[in-house]
Design goal:
Distance between the termini: 31 Å
Largest sheet: 5 strands, antiparallel
Radius of gyration: 16 Å
Number of strands: 7
Number of domains: 1
Helix content: 25-40%
Bound molecules: zinc ion
Length: 191
Amino acid sequence: MAIRKIATLGHPVLREVARMLTREELASPKVQSFIDDLVETMHDANGAGLAANQVYEPIRICAIEVRNNPRYPYKPNFPLTILVNPEVTPTTDDTFLNYEGCLSVPNLRGEVRRFTGVRVKAWDRQGNEVELDVKGLTAGTFQHEVDHLDGKVFLDRVEDTRSLATWADFERHHMAAFVERAKALVAKFGS
Ligand code: ZN
């Protein structure tokens, strides 16, 4: 396993629409070992998720895991999940404003509107079909990661650029109010 370099804003790989994988490719030692690297890189960088094109591989795989995350202390834990060829469909019109950050967008956070519920259809790393209904802050994380595979970063969805803040200024000026909203979401959806 190896820790991969993370692409940052401006690198064209982040703007590529990642390509679908076949089950044969997924089963290959190369792709399986890539998935190990993706997870190790996410852990090393304290990410809540990481998409393959963030580590320069434009293929439709992303990892999500929240375990007492120091970057996002208000996010409820979510077990390690590998999504291959994921498709995300909203299950509601209800939205919330998420204050997002991204390993590929260093030292910037901003408010992004996300659906409070999505259905995720994907394969797991063995190629088995999985279907997940995710809600609340966790639904926001899934939408953020699958956006990456479509060549989008959260900045594209920031409605009001005045919400953009460095991490230090987020903590100083916006975090308290956001944590209250986040707690209300967790209370409502349990996630
Ligand atoms: Zn990101």
